[in-house]
């Protein structure tokens, strides 16, 4: 049995009772949180040789982030000026066609490393060579739900058979820390038959589905012109919606689309940074929430956001709604924090997202002295909690994350990810993209539509 204790700390639980402790203690045994309480452990426990102690003085303990729409990526900062369709044709599809098992592993190690360093403990990752992604997740220690980029064969991405093999070979690895879902790229690289097959395979395997839906106006218009239905309506009729489906983006929705999401219990990944950077618009977040849809948050690929930082995403995701609707009451930190943690965990069916006894120990420790980002901060607990929520959403970034515990294991300590040589990894990524960027030139010949 392993045992970790974080003591003399501030604890933002995000549980149903909105519990808050200052000062407080979190005790972890193996992969679970066992105790959360006010005050400090006994002197005897603090002196025990079998306990790993983390001094929480001037620190905050909170749930790790669940990145609900994530892509391992290799080409951040390349082709930033392009809108979605051109970006996919010129950058994304050529870069993923240039992959092999080794390159996918390196890309995943770098993507997961940078995500962990900014507070993410779970990624819902749709990419290629899922076995390599699983190997990377296993080595680095992140919690991962993985899926293939399933499309029609002519697009030279992944086939439905690839995703089935990924599931059979990798689902449940590392005591279920690594799961495999079905993936579906989007209707612009699919057709009605393939969408139906994805729904059938999802049911056959008893797994979930990660799918892009209604991301751009052009996508919706093209699909409606071809089939007379929205992408959401096609997904519904194909059996692809449900409580075990994550629909990414969902920017351009009809009222009926929202009703279908609510009716089926489908979760949505709100991806405001990617949607803005690619010029796709702003999701109808208040309408989704009013309809009772569970909404989490996702970075998308680093190419689409240029940062893995969920702190930055929370800020932007709140501010853009306030600006659009001219309403400063929207995007309250209290709610945005839950979207980035608890709601994502619910969507993926994983027992994380809150600091509570019995929950999986996916916990981050934030340095409240880092670069003055949390100053000023009152001591009275109620006021301290409100100010902390504000600072977390509006005033800080991922560089304040000092420690990360995933599945009860210390994965990052004192700002360093323990399983990797970060400098070596950086050089490997640079060298790999030098080669990929050249190969991409010959892989841009296939249109995404």
UniProtKB/TrEMBL annotation:
One Pfam family cited in the UniProt record for this chain: Amidohydro_1
UniProt xrefs under SUPFAM superfamilies: Composite domain of metallo-dependent hydrolases, Metallo-dependent hydrolases
Domain (Amidohydrolase-related): residue spans on this chain: 60-411
Signal peptide extent: none
GO terms of molecular function: hydrolase activity, acting on carbon-nitrogen (but not peptide) bonds
Protein's name according to its UniProt entry: Amidohydrolase-related domain-containing protein
Species per Swiss-Prot/TrEMBL record: Cylindrodendrum hubeiense
